[in-house]
Write a structure and sequence with these properties.
Blueprint lengths: L10 H15 L4 H8 L8 H8 L6 H13 L10 E6 L6 H11 L2 E6 L4 H13 L8 E5 H9 L3 E2 L28 E14 H4 L18 E4 L2 H11 L9 H16 L3 E5 L3 H7 L4 E5 H7 L6 E4 L5 E11 L5 H11 L2 H11 L8 H8 L1 H4 L8 H4 L2 E2 L6 H15 L2
Parallel strand pairs: 1-2, 1-3, 6-7, 6-8, 10-11
Antiparallel strand pairs: 3-10, 4-10, 5-8, 5-9, 5-10
Helix pairs in contact: 1-2, 3-4, 9-10, 10-18, 14-15
């Protein structure tokens, strides 16, 4: 950071210092540190205090408590909605919801389907974030590990919960993520699981185990994700380990196992969302897949199946967040509140086929679409839910190490 005590640190220095601090904390109870601090790093006013507090005055607990108060007292006044921007993943909302929002609240939401990969999107907006400039988006939707990075790097604006009273409808299981335990900065959009997407006509039998990804019977006809944490976490679960409690070395060992199999020709390729093309065209018989995708793909190919692995599965959540220096916070919070109305959330769930984060959605769909309401890919049974695992809370330094190892395997 700057050597001049009178010069406020730049956001680039802030991020660098935070990542270094978090990496150091991993050597002495990092999970405890994250749990107490991740949700407390406020966007405005508190950053300088936080960094000053890292050894200059007060205890970490005292300063975290102080910053929590700053975030909790955020005030975004009610103003005309006007024009504002919502960035999301493709095919992730019923567009009629956007029209309804505009009609009810005025203004116009510019809805941009520009997030195809967490790291790719972050790379696009990181220069503005690190220089303290608006990124031109009022809501962004990012998956847990990237959401955690934005929170601990202070790239987010606290949510004025008075403008989001429907936040009370959030399902209990998502109330307290380790990176934002009081949901001061994030609100879930949709959840899903990683599992086995396969063509039962090609396999001739049901597939249930993570071990199938390494089964020589499917050599050259399997895909895994390019995303290091998705693939490594799945392998760890297959080995009977909890990814959230696994070290970086455990994750690296999982990548090494993937690499060994890749050298032997086990995998056709490593993919993003485009694994669906290989499945529907019959280029592969098995893919590491997203649960919601398979509901949609079955309409194109009834032979496709999705299985939650018998060993367990990663449950991920994509989260709505307001970036730092957000320009239209009230509009963003009004939309967050709108999509947490159970009727609106039910319409979104029926379109996207992922796991909704809002209470009461299943009961509404039981009346309008009983078949959808009973689909375990959208509403996992309690038995399935018991086998869900969370990602490890890796720091950006650790994640970079993991990504480099995966790149060496995939050629990325």
């Amino acid at each position: 950071m700057s050597d001049d005590p009178q010069t406020p640190p730049s956001r680039g220095e802030i991020e660098s210092h935070l990542e270094r601090l978090l990496h150091e904390q991993s050597l002495m109870g990092r999970r405890r540190f994250l749990g107490r601090s991740a949700g407390a790093i406020a966007m405005t006013g508190g950053l300088g205090a936080f960094l000053a507090a890292c050894g200059i005055k007060g205890t970490a607990e005292q300063n975290v408590a102080q910053l929590s108060k700053i975030a909790a007292s955020v005030n975004h006044p009610k103003v005309p909605i006007g024009n504002w921007t919502f960035s999301n993943w493709p095919l992730y909302i019923d567009k009629s919801v956007l029209k309804e929002f505009d009609a009810e609240y005025g203004g116009h939401v510019k809805y941009v389907e520009e997030i195809n990969d967490n790291n790719e999107f972050f790379g696009k907006v990181r220069p503005q974030l690190t220089s303290g400039k608006p990124i031109g988006r009022d809501i962004v939707v990012l998956t847990d590990p990237m959401a955690a990075r934005w929170v601990r790097s202070a790239f987010v604006t606290p949510i004025d919960k008075r403008n989001v009273p429907n936040g009370k409808n959030l399902v209990d299981s998502l109330l307290h993520p380790p990176y934002d335990p009081e949901r001061l900065f994030t609100l879930p959009w949709q959840s899903g699981a990683l599992g086995l997407g396969y063509d039962i006509k090609a396999t001739g039998r049901e597939l249930k185990s993570i071990k199938e990804f390494f089964n020589p019977e499917w050599k050259g006809k399997v895909t895994m994700f390019l995303d290091a944490q998705d693939s490594a976490s799945t392998v760890l679960i297959g080995e009977g380990k909890d990814p959230a409690k696994s070290s970086l070395d455990d994750h690296l060992a999982a990548v090494e196992k993937i690499g060994k199999a890749a050298k032997q020709g086990q995998f056709r390729r490593f993919t993003g969302n485009d694994y669906s093309t290989d499945l529907t065209k019959g280029n592969i018989v098995l893919a590491l897949a997203y649960s919601g995708d398979m509901v949609q793909l079955q309409s194109d190919n009834p032979n496709l199946r999705f299985a939650y692995p018998e060993e367990g599965a990663i449950l991920w959540t994509d989260n709505m967040m307001m970036p730092a220096k957000v320009q239209h916070p009230y509009a963003a919070e009004t939309m967050m509140n709108f999509v947490y109305e159970p009727e609106v959330a039910a319409k979104i769930a029926a379109y996207v086929n992922y796991i909704p984060p809002v209470k009461g959605v299943q009961e509404l769909l039981e009346k309008s679409d009983p078949e959808l309401a009973s689909n375990p890919l959208i509403f996992p049974t309690p038995e399935i839910s018991k086998r869900f695992f969370a990602y490890a809370q890796l720091s950006s330094v650790q994640r970079q190490d993991l990504d480099r190892a995966m790149a060496a395997v995939t050629g990325g």
